[in-house]
Amino acid sequence: MALLSVRYYSKALVKATEAIVIFPENKGSGPFPVLYLLHGLSDDQSIWQRRTSIERYVQDLPLIVVMPDGGRGFYCDAEEGMAWETAIARDLIDLIDSMFPTIAERAGRCIGGLSMGGYGAMKFALRYPDRFCSAHSHSGALGFAHWPLSADRGNAFAVEFTRVIGKSPVGGPNDLFALASAVHPAARPALSIDCGLSDHLISANEAFHAHLDEIGYEHKYTEYPGGHDWAYWDEHIKEAIGFHARGLKISPVKESRLP
Q: How many domains does the chain have?
């Protein structure tokens, strides 16, 4: 595998930013499908490569993995702040398709993430079902923008993220429950959601799972032992890769070796 750092200027962010790319060497000339992998609230584009064995898990697959910086913006176009949604769901995808031999269509593009990134992956798939064929979430903050933030101005989280999603986000473009209900059944991306039984976000995951069941949105939902930590995510990203690989209809290809 080749590991590349793509540093570029983002028009949506009005600043330079970075994405880390895992590129499949010796797997032919492509075109290749792409998995976009999103980080959580306290991390950046380097974290999946630093804290998991993601390179080893995809080493035999004809698959490009793109890990972008998402800041602390919950992958939203903030009401007061930066446009992380447009920066990734539109600008970055177009950039990657222009730079690499990708399958530049819905059937060759999937997305996933953990915590804030799990929310972001679900949001991008449901907001842009024409761009993603599948999405997965580990320990996702899936209730973000569905349950109102505390009005207590002493709550630093509420103060910060009210600037992102506003004071009345429920039912709006950042509410996963509303987004899932709005996607036409024929256009629904495949979804896989998992969460640890000891995770503080388990109730939000259960609520979103129940909502998907209620609206008849077929999906995979699993609860495992574990908490909100890298031991859990490193273990279950392997299952997510398999989930996407089946949807993309790709299988392992051993690297060709020079004699």
A: 1
**Side chain identity at 68, as an amino acid letter?**
P
pLDDT tens digit sequence for 46-59? 999 999 999 999 99
What's the rounded Cα separation, in Å, for the pair 51 and 33?
24
d(CA 40, CA 153): 24
Residue 1 pLDDT grade (very low, low, confident, very high; cuts 50, 70, 90): confident
Identify the domain containing residue 171 by its residue range. Answer: 2-248
What stretches of the chain adopt beta strand conformation (E)?
A: 2-10, 15-23, 34-38, 64-68, 109-114, 134-138, 190-196, 220-224
- CA 59/CA 24 separation, integer angstroms: 7
Helix (H) or strand (E) holding 117: helix 116-127
Q: Whole-model pTM?
A: 0.96
195-206 burial code (b ≥16 CB/10 A, e <16): bbeebebbebbe
